[in-house]
Amino acid sequence: MMLSHNARLRAVALAGAFLAFAASGVGAQTAASPLPPTNQEIFAPLPLPAPSRIRTASGEPGPDYWQQRADYRIKVALEPESHRIRGSEVILYTNNSPDALDELWIQLEQNLFRPGSRGSFVNSGTRWRGAFEGGGIELSRVEVVQGGKTRRPKYSIDDTRMRIDLDEPIPPKGGKIEIRIDWTFVVPEYGADRLGRFQSVDGWVYELAQWYPRMYVYDDVRGWNPMPYIGQGEFYLEYGDFDVEITVPRDYIVVATGELQNPQEVLTATQRQRLERARRSAETIHIVAPDEVGRPDSRPRGSGPLTWRFRASNVRDFAWAASRAFIWDAASWDGILVMSAYPREGLGTPEQPGWEMSTQYVRQSLAHYSEMWVRYPYPVAINVAGIVGGMEYPMIVFCSVNARGQALFGVTDHEFGHTWFPMLVGNDERRHAWMDEGLNTLLNHYSNLAYYGAGAQRVRATSPDYIVERMLEPTHDQPIMTYADHLRRDGLGFLAYRKPGFGLILLREVVLGPERFDAAFKEYIRRWANKHPQPADFFRTIEDVSGEDLSWFWRGWFYSTALLDQAADSVTTREGATVVHLSNREGLVMPVTLEVEYAGGATERHRLPVEIWLHADSYALELPGGREVVRVTVDPDRKLPDVRRENDTWRKAVVP
Known about the structure:
Structural class: alpha+beta
Number of strands: 32
Number of helices: 15
Largest sheet: 8 strands, mixed
Shape: globular
């Protein structure tokens, strides 16, 4: 016999209760007569980590909250003839933890592309084509400076991770160490959806990310987090300041995280004037126009390479792009410099707009997110066209050069939505992909609707019909809470992006209502800006601000693969009243919106709380007055992911 999901849940719960009961010494006769099953296990408090003075029961950082800091000074040169990067960096690492640290863990993500890497086995045959001959990072110097003494420490490299053993531990609560590393690597053609290069008609376009050795996170939850970089899971990073010098051939344009510090050295007088105009203009202004690409007079006079200097404060990462093929345009939104850099392959047509619209797309996204949620936190915003389909970094994103129209707006909007998650709210993407991708999908849903209205194509993936279609597939057997690298590749888009995003739309529109949800969501951003939240911090904050125990919602939607099936079973009469009989036939529970139609055509709606399912999977709603009911429909607006629409409506039989 097939058990429903509810029945399976109850069987497990009752078995556990029976064992605990028997172990307590109570007589066998009592233990053999369990009470009738209920849905108590669905509504039970969600077991979360014990609160503390670091992470409180309300979901707020506590008075003892701490996190580490990593500040970077980097000099890097691009050698296009060999596609090689050569860099030298100084990391100032501050140990704010209560622990003395006698080791450091450094991320060497370029080793993903070394033949024989872990990721090359996991991802063989995927679009990024695995490792390549000559791939991986080469280190020529590793030094640490402590107490004014420079040492060459013992270190070991395992795949994408480097461990440095220290002669002296870093003292707790403010101790510092300086790490100096020199390195080089060849830029892969397609770098695991994150970075790469492609040959434009006007020259190579380089997009650089995961390009410098950087600190792993040491936190209060797990200590060091040295998870290997396999390719699918993204990143967990410390915050800090970046001072970066990028040396490229003279005819190259560079865009990067942060603000350009030396425009007088790397731009012509005309380009500097255009950039100043763009800072005050809502209209797009070309800094380098299409007909200026490759012209000698589009670059400062002289010979030899140029060094571009950028500075960014309190960010978790730094990325950049460079090419002689870049068309470069800019505008302003509310004092923020908005820019796009793209080769001529990115230009579109009046029927299908291309990258000439990018800067206005970015302005639209920044305006929407800033007005609906929390203001964009950085001084610049840059969109780059290249081989990377879509990837986000502080102040700069990479989007496909081939994207057009709604597809270009959609990917641009998505990548800039990541400004809030995980750039501002710095969650652990490697483990909890839904905490940035899912939350960002919620943002994107409303942004696309605001821009395109009913014609928004991207919102189909956050529609109930699409969600039901995917939930009924055999591959829907992993919960949202599964670690990113453990998700099947064909399940990543659904379980990290669309299912959690749709769940939060449900929470906003069906469970809490926009007013309560928006207040809680904004407070979560405020509490955890530039910090490292865990899932429990998100769950607790939403409950704390909304005043609602949502254990049933988190358990069903995030921790299980249960389905939803609400049904209108029948209508009866008793003692002058009409009774509507409802049932919940699968494992998920949700509030019920019920539309009742009476003889004569009058209709009314009833909103029933989720607690109607607390004691049973059936519920009888009494309608006073005894009027004749001809139709009853649950979820009349089809907002819920109900897997069997055929039982949503009951109709009175027509007697011939």
